[in-house]
Task: structure prediction
Amino acid sequence: MPSDKKIEASVNEAPATPAPKAADKILDVARDLFYREGIRAIGVDEIVKRAGVTKPSLYRSFPSKDELAASYLRKYDLEFWERFDEAVDAHPGNPRAQIVAFLTRVGKRTQKPDYRGCGMTNAAVEYPKHGHPARIVSENNKQELRRRLRAMAGAMGATDSDTLGDGLLLLIEGAYISGQLFGRGGPAASVARNADLLIEASLKK
Amino acid sequence: MPSDKKIEASVNEAPATPAPKAADKILDVARDLFYREGIRAIGVDEIVKRAGVTKPSLYRSFPSKDELAASYLRKYDLEFWERFDEAVDAHPGNPRAQIVAFLTRVGKRTQKPDYRGCGMTNAAVEYPKHGHPARIVSENNKQELRRRLRAMAGAMGATDSDTLGDGLLLLIEGAYISGQLFGRGGPAASVARNADLLIEASLKK
DNA sequence: CCATACATACGTACCGGTCAGTAACATTGT
DNA sequence: ACAATGTTACTGACCGGTACGTATGTATGG
Result:
């Protein structure tokens, strides 16, 4: 039955789509370079060179560099929630332990020598204008994170769960940024401990 | 013998503006554009066009675009410490009130519609490589801020003053970033309250 | 009193390189 | 055959940066 519709070679959606090989290599290289150096700092020529492909191949799989950046962030988004849910699953029914576990890992990652912060956050800084494809992905990720943190703060029994959730978000974003600003020995190393203090101070007595 | 040639206000020993100096106009425009759009996003042509000067004028006053960016940040640095010291001077001998006052103002600023975060932080994100002129200014500013926050945490009588100082820094950086990510109604609005909670939880009992 | 000379400040026009993106065609594997 | 990829060459815009000529004020010397 030839009734199957022609599927656009879009890597952006539909995880079931059998993506061409070149597109994968491009996205892998883009992920690495965009994260380490920044999106604006990396040109498409650099990407295709390192991926061992050619420019037309890039533009067959991605409509533009901006969309490639958005695809990079969508991939980043998936991996982020994987890490987040790992911490959550490690402490079922204990949101406080979930948060502390997640932040302990974040704090450790920020101490690695080539730590470059959160790809989402960095992209939003690079593209301050609303509506940019990359920024949209970033904003959605952060809004979802805020939603979940507030919900977890509520589950902890905080006096003001929205304030605590937002406070945790501030600490997390601060850790991302401070991690890349100060490097080893920076303030980000204390994020889990500070979060625990803030939680303690926010619980109903 | 009246010369009909119009002579521009020959007396420029005026109290406020001594000269329509090209370098000043350039730095003013650069400051505005770099902060709002990002450094990498703005070309030197755009700067000189908006400043009403020409490119050679820029390069007579600044050796390179990177150095112009560094100059912008040095100016930013001065204004930052002005704001910081305003909060400090408003509450002599009371570091906790100083911090809360400063963060109250930061929280308010983050709610303004065109808020774009901290120019220092943004520049460090845009230039992750160590040694970049702009990044050096940014790193120095942040290290000094950390030093002062830790000192203030000590003056408050915190159990672990370094941890509290770093926690405050995390909240501040988180507010900068969240301010530009979420806009009005974002988590940054609660930075002062969260800082106060964290301080309360960190004091010797 | 005027002319020359110099320093300062600015503009015109241009450089080579890189940017994102594309057209037309050849090659490969199934 | 067909679809994915590679090859080559190109575009127009923009990038940071510069060589070089021009205006103007001032100080000096005749």
Notes: Residues 12 and 48 of chain B are 24 Å apart (CA to CA). Residues 43-45, 55-56, 58-59, 64-65 of chain B lie near DNA strand D (CB under 10 Å from a C1'). Chain B touches chain A through 51 residues (CB under 8 Å). The radius of gyration of chain B is 21 Å.
